[in-house]
Every structure is written in structure tokens, then in C-alpha cells.
Amino acid sequence: MSEARMGPGSNSDAFLADRARFVRTETVRLSRIAGAGHYSSTFSAAELFACLYYDHLKLDPANPAWEERDRFVLSKGHAAIGLYPVLADLGFFAPSALDDYTRLGSPFGDHPDMKKIAGVDFSSGSLGHGLSIGLGMALAGRIGGKGYRVHVMLGDGELHEGQIWEAAMAAGHYRTQGLVAIVDRNTLCIDGTTEEIMSVEPIEDRFAAFGWAVSRIDGHDIPTIRATLRALKPAGEGKPQLIVADTIKGKGVKRMEMALNWHVGNLVGQDYDDVMAELMGEEA
Amino acid sequence: MGEAQDQSEIFRGTQAGGALRDARSVQGTPAAAAPAFILGEELADMADADPRVVALTADLASANRLVEFKARHPGRFFDMGIAEKNMLTVAAGLAACGYVPFAATFASFCALLGAEQIRTDCAYPRMKVRAIGHHSGISMGFYGTSHHATEDLAMMRSIADLTVVCAADANALRAILRESVDHPGAMYIRLGRGRDPVVYQEVPALRFGQATRLRDGSDITIITTGAVVRATLDAAELLAAEGIEARVLDMHTVKPLDLAALEAAARETGAILTVEEANIVGGLGGAAAEALVDMPRIPFRRHGVPDEFAPVGPPAALYAHYRLDAAGIAAVARETLKRA
């Protein structure tokens, strides 16, 4: 377990950068165990994971079911391979539990299962559902008078799903300010760029038209991410909040950056060593 | 007089915009709100005592009477608009925070449009969502295939960890709703159109997974569920007049199926007939057929909507068309026994 401390401002930018690197190296390690993994769409979210979990979310790893905790819904469930190591690192479960990642009977599959993994607030994998889940959680907080916020990480291609817009409309209607959507805007889906396959821009205008407060940031710039998260409004009546995080799919490994054919893959042998060295800042 | 009686059941809504000039005119949707639809009232009563109970609908609160819940518990009622998928998944999010959401819309939209949400967001993570599909089967009559739901039993039954229950009448629905609050996991609750003829004079002591024996006999067992239970009982009386004694089981829980009751029927009675207001492919009859493969051989027949899209027509005419009225069910039972 790292020397992570919980709570905003507890950890340095350099520490968060190191945790983002940890997300990437663990993704490479776990993918080799499974024989395949979602590298590039996890790499694009690495700084977002680091800032959310080590600087922002109100959590208690010793009490995963704490009612007052902030919620995090990984609607782009295929990035779970980057979330599991963070949860282990924070103490939700033993890091060794990941050593048989995806093997028969493992709690850890390519997509997260809330019934098997402490710290996972909702199961995901089918794109388009997470914003509705988050809205339900935000409405539950309103009924129960809780002050938690609900953060939902969406893929940009996921915005193609119609249910996203049902949820966006309903969140605007019910003015769930405590609902925070973060779009990992890495611009690539499987068959090409989103703008080639099915355009999603202008994302901010579209959400704003549905009654959301919107912002757009560099999703790899740690001080910016921290400041943006810190500036979020608390739960209550008001516009739900959207952060579009511009990212690079495959960020951190040159051969994967903006490369369509690395949405899934498997690195072995010298390629594995080369990529690990690159992530660790060493010359291959 | 018949016409006047029909009118008394019709919801007139508000009379804004001036009085209607002909007494036969109707404002509002005739199918929309029979006084017998107790869903909103019962859930509101439950919510008085239980802070976990919340209700959602998709722009059908006047049809399913959740307006009565909304009036009494506005903070725990969410109309999600005409967006059923979002409604079901929002319900799952509420359930993840400890609430017991009842999410109700027409069965065709709840179970068919929302199938993946019920599977992935409710059943798989074992959320205590109660997805309520009302106006199921062919009860929407002349509204047509888009509003019929004859496939929902087969679809919902194929989802793991999902309890599938059908209400025979208002009192059965009361029992189901009350029992459901502390039942683990997700449920699909299938209702008729809320004006189903009375089967239970009082709220029955109903247990999920345990068929209710409504009538005993040894010549044939008729296993039925939902809004056709009353017609099945009436058919049993017609048969009794001819000397045929039928056991009638209300198999309210289609999943998990009461295998003990099924096996007892196979051992103790001469034949088995299933009766449902659903496509015979995969529904109650399908469930019984699958289970009977491992049980003593016995004449067996599935009766319901054949594997076709139903024509339009008034509900009563459709039930007669498909022999889902008392006379039709009795006739099918006779045929089943002739083959025996």
C-alpha cells in the first residue's frame, strides 16, 4: 500500500503523478495476467483516477458501505483494470487479490462487479447506464438528506448511447447539483474517432442545453484537475455538473497514443519490458 | 343500462375547457384509471410506515394511479418522463443507496424496452428494484401490438436472480407489494390493467415461490397466473358441472417455479394444463414444460396466446378469441383430457 493520505490537498502533485503512473503500470501487469486488456482507454483516465481517489472523493476504505461517502460510478466499465489497483492501494482489499485477475473464480473481471469488489459503487460494463445510476444515487441523497456527491466517469463514445441523454435530461430537470459527470474525452472509439463514427461535439453545448453547468479541462494536467474538482459545488438543488476532460487515448505509451488498434491488446516479452520501462521513465 | 355501467368505470379527468354536451362523451383515456387499480394507494400506505419505499413511473402516473402516491409522498415520487430505460436504471441507483423503488409502466415498455436495464442494473447486482409491468398480455386490446406484452414472461424468466411474479387481482397485488419489500434481489411484477375480476376476497397470505391452491380436484390440474386466474376458476366450475374436478393453482411466482406443486400435480392428478395471458413460448407453460421433463409422464398442454402477434380488439373479445375466457379454458381442458 502506498503512503496515500485521504482528503483534498493531502497529497502533492508529484505523488498524484506517481499514482497515475501506478495506474498505467498495473494495467500493463494485469493485462498480461489476463492475456488481454483495455490499455489505452485506461491510460487516458489515469490522472483523473489519481486525482479523484487520492485528492477528492470522500471515502473510508475501512468502511466501504459508509452511507455518507461520495459515490463513484465507472460508467466506462472497461477501464476497471485501472481502478482495481487504486482500490487495493487505498486498502479496500489486499493488493495480492489482483494476482489472479480474471482467472476462473476471480472477483475481478474486465468489467467491475459491485457484489464482489469492495469499493466499487456500482457494477458496469454496458455503456450508457452509469449516468442514470448516478442520478438515482443523487436522488437517494436528496431523499435521505445526505451531503454526498456522485461522480460518474463516462467515455466519450458512450455519449452515443441514448440513455445518457435520458439521464442528462432528467438530471437537469431534477436539478441534482450533486451529480458530477466526467467525460474522458480521448476522442477515439473502437472503429475510429468519435467525430468520424458518430460525432459527439459540441459536448458542453449539448449538456448545457439540458440544464448542466459545464467546464472543459486538460484531463492530464494534475493541478488543473485538482482545482476543477475542488471548485465543484456541493450536493443540493442546482445544475448538475459536467467536466469534459480532454485526454489522449493511450497516454503515456508512445506506441499506443491515439492508436486505434490498442483499444485492447496484450503485451508480452520484450514489448512488455519496453512499455514498463517507458512508463517508469527509463530508456528501453 | 349496460352503457351507463361502462361509463361509471371511465376516468373523466378534469372538466377544464367547458362541460361536454353529450353524456356519452369521455374526457381522458378510458383505459386509464379504473378505481380498482390499487397500486398507488397501496404503495402510499406502505410508504407511510416504511421510509425505504419510493415510486417511479414514465409519464403514466394517471394510468397506474401512482398519482395517489405522488399526492401523499411527493418527495419520494419521481416521474421520469417517457424514458423507461432511464427510469429503471435510476431505480437501481436508488436501490444501491438502500431504497426499495417501485418503477411502474406498461409491461411492453417495462419488460421489453427495459429488458437490459432490468437484467444488468437490477438483477445482476441484486438491486431491490420492483419493476412493475402493468397492462400486460393482451389487456391493452385495440391499442395493438406495440402495447401488448405477451413476451415479457419468457424474457424476464430467462434472467438469473430475478423473481417474476404475477398478480391475479387487487388483493393479490396488495400481498405481492407488501411481501416484496423485504424480499432479496430484483423483481418483475406483472399486472393486468387494474380492473381484473376478483379472485381473493381478502389479502391472501402469499409466499413467493409457493403456488396457491385455489381449488382441489384430481382429474386435471390447471396451473394459471395473473389476470386469467379468475377465468380459470370459472372454467373449473363449468367443468365441475360436467363431473370433471380440476385442481387450480395460482402460480403467481413464475420464477422460481414451485416445483413441488408441479410434481404433486403430476403425481396426484390426471393431466396438467397451463393457462396464461402470454405467448406460450417460454412463459408459464414453457417453465412447466421444462420442469415436467424430469417428472412423471402425464398429459400436458400449454394454453395461452399462440406464437403470433395478436389482432386488435376490445380486451374481452381478444380473450374470447384466444379462448382465455372461462368457456374457452374449459374447452381446452376437455381437449386435454380427451388426449389423456
Q: If you had to describe this structure to a student in words, what would you say it looks like?
A:
The complex is a heterodimer of chains A (284) and B (340). Helix content of chain A is 38%, strand content 10%. Chain A is built from ten helices and five strands, in the order H-H-H-E-H-H-E-H-E-H-H-E-H-E-H. Chain A has helices at residues 13-34, 40-43, 46-56, 80-90, 130-144, 162-174, 194-197, 203-209, 222-230, 269-279, and strands at 71-74, 150-155, 179-185, 213-218, 241-246. Chain A has a five-stranded parallel β-sheet, sandwiched between helices. The radius of gyration of chain A is 18 Å and the shape is globular. Chain B is α/β, with parallel strands linked by helices. Chain B has two domains: 39-190, Rossmann fold (3-Layer(aba) Sandwich), CATH 3.40.50.970; 212-338, Rossmann fold, CATH 3.40.50.920. Chain B is 37% helix and 18% strand. In chain B, the strands form two sheets. A seven-stranded mixed β-sheet of chain B has the order 2-1-3-4-6-5-10, sandwiched between helices. In chain B, strands 7-9-8-11-12 form a five-stranded mixed β-sheet, sandwiched between helices. In chain B, helix 9 links the parallel strand 5 (162-166) and strand 6 (186-190).
